[in-house]
Design brief:
Layout (H helix, E strand, L loop, with lengths): L7 E8 L8 E9 L5 H5 L14 H13 L4 E7 L1 H6 L2 H19 L3 H4 L1 E5 L7 H7 L3 E4 L2 H4 L1 H24 L5 H4 L5 H10 L7 H4 L8
Parallel strand pairs: 1-4, 4-5
Antiparallel strand pairs: 1-2, 2-3
Length: 216
């Protein structure tokens, strides 16, 4: 277990919201260094920490390795898989994963529930907007938070690296779809594979039914 200082922030972000296949993955990351976790970034010597979409894959992996190896950083992950996304909807699924990830993190750090400042990237809520307001009074959803708050950017990176690795593993089960290349997003390569082979059990059917490729 990481040794976390008494002055820390928790950032929460998701990856995979718009993908056609694979889970949505949420990371909750506890970092020291003041109100928004800025101190942990300044010590990294890895350049500027950004939203995962704005970092190269090698840079994301380097940041994730740094966070994993830092004694004062801890995190938890949660996923909702395609069938769960279909039963709810993608927003509800992402919010459920956010609450699960935070719950797992707080279980490892009992003091966090009372003292943590929690920041979520815009569009994410802990359970729901109403539920968050009632239960998590120190939680704040921040529009474009992954660009403003280092703790959220850290969560974005950790979630992205974890999901990419999952999709690469998934590609070994479903090699025809090249999940290791596009990570389940709706690229031309992915759409061509769906059109040729049809969907597999890793696809979100409710998403595919909105795609022209499923209507031909």
């Amino acid at each position: 277990m990481a040794t976390v200082s008494s002055d820390y922030a928790i950032g929460i972000d998701e990856v995979g919201r718009g993908a056609l296949a694979g889970p949505v993955v949420v990371a909750a990351v506890m970092v020291p260094g003041g109100r928004r976790g800025k101190g942990i970034v300044e010590a990294a010597n890895l350049g500027v920490l950004k939203d995962s979409k704005k970092l190269s894959a090698p840079r994301r992996v380097a940041w994730a390795k740094y966070f994993r190896g830092h004694r004062a950083v801890d995190f938890a992950l949660a996923r909702v898989y395609p069938r769960g996304i279909e039963r709810m909807n993608i927003s509800a699924a992402a919010n459920r994963a956010a609450e699960r990830a935070l719950t797992r993190l707080i279980k490892k750090h009992a003091h966090a529930g009372a003292t943590a400042r929690i920041f979520l990237d815009g569009g994410l809520f802990l359970g729901s907007r109403v539920h968050q307001s009632a239960r998590y009074k120190k939680a704040k959803t921040v529009i474009k938070g992954d660009e403003k708050i280092p703790a959220i950017a850290a969560a974005s990176v950790i979630a992205k690296v974890a999901r990419d690795r999952f999709m690469a593993t998934l590609a070994t089960r479903h090699p025809r779809y090249s999940f290791e290349v596009h990570k389940g997003y709706g690229t031309a390569l992915h759409r061509a594979a769906i059109q040729k082979y049809g969907p597999c059990d890793a696809h979100r059917l409710t998403f595919l039914h909105k795609e022209p490729i499923m209507k031909r």
